[in-house]
């Protein structure tokens, strides 16, 4: 599937995305809560800040430290999930709230890292499967692939701890979530 801007052009893509952001904010405003509007604006700022960090690194050929990269992922990918969970919390009549936010963001980060590093698909339409295999071989030789796998396993441990805490707090075993995690884990 080609990127939207390659089909419709950059100007139309940016305009359509901006229009849909304003539609989303209209829907948040219909919730009738100033807190909801503040949450939506804060997470939109986080999303754009995370994307701007990624664009800076790409345009300036900068390789960020892992902590900065994970922060960028938190902001640009986690922002939408944080928006959803924060809105649900504000509008929920229940006082009991397991910490699903951290779990969701960890899952998303792990999935993105796995897909970006281990997939054989084209990157920006430029890398062939052969090129990706060569990159993976070089990463393995340099030790960075082992480092990445270790970082992913650390995330998996954090996810397992969140699931256990969620199950204890809710008083329910979540076998479906655990099955999904087994599919994602390296």
TrEMBL record:
SUPFAM superfamilies: Terpenoid synthases. The keyword Transcription regulation does not apply. One of its GO terms (molecular function) is prenyltransferase activity. The keyword Glycosyltransferase does not apply. It comes from the Eukaryota. Keywords: Magnesium, Metal-binding, Transferase. One of its GO terms (biological process) is alcohol biosynthetic process. PANTHER family: GERANYLGERANYL PYROPHOSPHATE SYNTHASE, THIJ_PFPI FAMILY PROTEIN (AFU_ORTHOLOGUE AFUA_3G01210)-RELATED. This is Ophiobolin F synthase. It comes from Tolypocladium ophioglossoides (strain CBS 100239). The lineage of its organism: Eukaryota, Fungi, Dikarya, Ascomycota, Pezizomycotina.
